[in-house]
Amino acid sequence: MDKPKLTELGIKSFLNHSLKKCNEFKTFYFNSILNLSLLLLFIIIVSVILLMKYKGKLSDEEKEIKNKENRNYILSKIKNYQIAKLKENQSLISGLPHF
Prior knowledge:
The chain has 99 residues and is mainly alpha-helical. It is 79% helix and 0% strand.
């Protein structure tokens, strides 16, 4: 004797077909949302990197000011070194202080 079936053959195929369609629909939209979000994330990262690179560059006036400050700093250090050498050469040979 055959086992009793509680559902008809047409209902089983209808449910299987319906579940396959639901799975395809869900997969399509999940992949679409994932791809769009990754694209948006990529665009945001690239734009932030490009913005940081653009904002990091100095203008010509700022470059000149920075070069002048560096030049003045180096010249002041050289002058201080020369003054210290001159004082060292003018001191007594024994290094004793003057009274």
